[in-house]
Structure formats: C-alpha cells, structure tokens
Amino acid sequence: MALFELAQPQWLAAHINEPGVVVIDTRPAAEYWAGHIPGARHLDPALFALTQTDAAALARLHAVLAWSLSAIGLSAADQVVVAGAGNEVNAARVAWALAYAGQEHIRLLDGGVAAWAGTREQAAPAVRASAYVVRPQAAYLATAQEVLEATRSGAARIVDARSQEEYAGQRSNAGRKGRVPGARFWDTAQELAADGRYAPAAQVARAAQAIAGADERAIVYCGGGGRAARTFVALQLAGHTATAVYPASWNEWGTAEHYPVETA
User: Fold this and answer.
1) Edge-to-edge, what's the strand order for the sheet holding 21-25?
2) Which domain of life is it from (predicted)?
3) CB 3.0 to 4.6 Å from 99: which of 2, 87, 161, 209, for a disulfide?
4) What pLDDT shows up at residue 87?
5) What is d(CA 32, CA 46) in angstroms, rounded to the nearest whole number?
6) What is the mean pLDDT of residues 18-47?
7) How confident is the model at residue 264 (pLDDT cuts 50, 70, 90)?
8) What is the DSSP letter of 232?
9) Three-state DSSP class for 138?
C-alpha cells in the first residue's frame, strides 16, 4: 500500500537534490515549459483518464502507466513529489495513478507549483528511461462491476464527489441525470482550507465520518475521475486507507443504460 504525505515547499527545497527524490509536474505542457521546479519531470494527467473500466480498458491503462513512467525514468523506490498548479484535480489524478501502479511513497506539494518560491528552469532534465514494472493495486481502483455489486450487497460505501446539483439529478456531465443508488454526497470544498492548502487531516477525518468509517471500503466517483481522485487523496491523508476511485465515474455509469440510477 502507498504512503501518502504532504510536502511543504520548505521541505522540498531542503530535499530536492537528494537521490531518489523525483518531482513530477502535472500542469499543462505550456506552463511546464514556461518555467518549472528544477529537475521536475512532466507527466500529462489526461493519460490516466478512463471512460470504461472493463478488462480491455484496464489493460490499456497498465500499458500507458508502464510506458509513461518508464519514459520519465521513474523507479518504484523513488520518493515522488507530485506538483500541480495548486491542489487541483490534475495532481491528485496522477498521485492516484502512481499509487495504483504500485508506487510506495507519494508526496503532494501542498499548494502546488504556485507555492514554490525557489528558482524555476525551462530546460527539461536529462533522465535515463527506466523499465518501470506496473504492479496494479486493485484496492485503489473500483470497476463499474464492483460498484454495481456494492449497490446490491453494501460491501462498500459509494461516495459521490460531484456537485450538489449533479448529485440531486439537476444536471449531468454525461448521459442520464441522477446518482449511483445509495451514494452518499461528499462536499469537496471540505478537502481544502481557505488558503487553498489541504485541510488538516483531523478535520477531514471528522467530516468523513458521515460517509464511511475509517476502516470501511469507500468507492469515490465524480464526473470523470478527477474530483474523485482529489477526494481519494484527501481521505488517504486523513487515514481512510481503504478508499478507492471509480475512475470512469459518471462518464461510464451515466451513459450505460444497464446501470441503475437513483434520482429521488
């Protein structure tokens, strides 16, 4: 299982040159090339967005993970620091993907690149490609089939990280309106403090008591997996280590007529 931690900019400044510390920049490529944290390697979060969770889709995800993580020279032993523009969904999606791939130590730069006060560079770092071996961690990814089974058995708590309007069936990003039957609403605003940093873990843990026990399996979904990934990160930081992401989320569930939808 992965260890999730926050890295403050001061910590990164003190450790950035240590062997095995790898910064991954998840901002759009144009922003990365305009100036990034020294040594940071770029990774496109869109690579890990899914619209299906069948066997073929997961096989493609595994191939993309192996190719992309090898291309940036990553090894399983590296201490990764994921840096987005801020504490937004792109950095969280990459952090989730790394955990699913089997990376064991993942830090998120709290406040993202915007919080970094050090120098920036425009040149890409010289890295040697690795042969990254993906070790899929099934505990971190839920398929549509698992979500369907959970609606029948109650084996996992289903958590909806979309807006209140989407949860209530007033609007939808894809297909039908409504929610997964039995899903509990989670207000993603609870994940961040007023300054945009991650909220204190104890505060998130208290709020999360309304959706799942700390040891209960919770499956988080949203519209397309991004918001769910940030909720996943926030809950992992708060000690809810049995949390998983349904990465295809409403893009899959809302467009497939054979999956039940609740609107009342």
Assistant:
1) 3-7, 105-109, 79-83, 21-25, 41-42
2) Bacteria
3) 2
4) 85
5) 15
6) 97
7) confident
8) H
9) helix
- Which tokens in the block code for residue 48? 């890990």
Residue whose structure tokens are 């959706």: 211
Strand partners, 129: none
- Which residues fall within 8 angstroms of residue 123, CB to CB, at 6 or more apart? none
**Residues 229-248, mean pLDDT to the nearest whole number:** 97
Structural domains of the chain, ranges and CATH numbers in brackets: 3-115 (3.40.250.10), 144-255 (3.40.250.10)
For residue 261 the two structure tokens come to 């939808």
Crossing angle (nearest 10°) for helices 55-71 and 89-101 = 100
Distance between CA atoms of 88 and 213, rounded to whole angstroms?
Answer: 25
Element (H, E) at 162: none
Tokens 């952090």 belong to 95
Over range 125-141, report the average pLDDT: 97
pLDDT in tens, 175-220: 899 999 999 999 999 999 999 999 999 999 999 999 999 999 999 9
Residue showing tokens 């990280």: 161
Measured CA distances, 253 to 13, 97, 157, 239, 243 (Å): 43, 20, 16, 28, 19
CA 215 – CA 213 distance, rounded (Å)? 5
Q: What's the alpha-carbon Rg for the chain, to the nearest Å? A: 18
Q: Cα–Cα–Cα angle for 245, 248, 249, nearest 5°?
A: 70
Q: Which is nearest to 160 in space by CA: 236, 245, 60, 45?
A: 245
Residue 121 CB contacts under 8 Å (≥ 6 apart), including other chains: 35, 36, 38
The pair of three-digit structure tokens given for residue 237, joined into one six-digit string: 């930081």
**Hey, is 163 helix, strand or coil?**
coil
